[in-house]
Each structure stands twice: as structure tokens, then as C-alpha cells.
Amino acid sequence: MSAVQKQTASSSSDSDPRYANVDERKRKRMISNRESARRSRARKQKLMEDFMKEADQLKSENNHLEEIINTRSQYYVQVESDNNVLRAQAMELTERLASLNSVLHLCQEVNGYSLDIPEIPDPLLKPWQLPFPGQPIMASADLLL
């Protein structure tokens, strides 16, 4: 469009009341669209901030859970180690008891004394049977933490 045509188009739209309403509607629509876009950007920004907060919270919770898992794993390794030591000690004591019982059997045969020699229970043959059923097993609160 040439400059002359633009001037006549704008001058005719200024003087014509029909075009005045069109221009006013365009202006209002532009303002409305800008406001809508601003609100949309603000919503998107708020949503992004909320997601970032949630991600930070989840990372923090994940780190906390990893610390708990590491602590429990270390505790498990320690308990397993202690259990292995106790098993070895139980085997050693069972062997010593068997040795002492054989000495008692020998004394019984040689001297003719009547001795009441109990059977040696093998805890490894029946691991779920308690060696002393009359004694309760005490649980520690540390195991639950």
C-alpha cells in the first residue's frame, strides 16, 4: 500500500464510526490477549516453582532414606559378623562339652560310678528349636530403629 492510500484508509477509519468500533475491539482484544498471556506465564512459572520445590523435597527424602539404608546395612553386617562369631563359639563349646562328656564316660567305665551324663544337643541340626525353651528371648529396641 502506498503512503497516500494508508493516509486515506486511516483518515476514512477515523471519520467513519463503523471503523472506530473495530479499532476499539481490536485494542481491547489485544489488551485481553496480553493479560491472558501474562496470566498463563505466571501460572507456568508457579507450576515450575512447585515442581522444583517437590523435586528438592523428594531429593531430600531420598537422601534421608539412603542414609537409613546405609545405617541399616552397616548394622546388618555387624549383626551378621557377631552371629558368625557366636556360631563359631557355640561349635567350640559344643566340641569342648563333647570332650568333657567323653572324659565322664571314661571315668564312669573305669571307676564304675553311675553318672547322669546328658545328651549334647546339636543346635545346628535343629536351628529353629530353642536350646532353652524356658528362657524368653528379649528383643532390643535398637533392632527396630
From TrEMBL:
Residues 1-45 are annotated as: Disordered. It comes from the Eukaryota. Residues 15-25 have a biased composition (Basic and acidic residues). Residues 1-14 have a biased composition (Polar residues). One of its GO terms (molecular function) is protein dimerization activity. GO terms for biological process: positive regulation of DNA-templated transcription. One of its GO terms (cellular component) is nucleus. InterPro entries: bZIP (IPR004827), bZIP_sf (IPR046347). Its main location: nucleus. Gene3D superfamilies: 1.20.5.170. PANTHER family: BZIP TRANSCRIPTION FACTOR 44, BZIP TRANSCRIPTION FACTOR 53. This is BZIP domain-containing protein. It comes from Erythroxylum novogranatense.
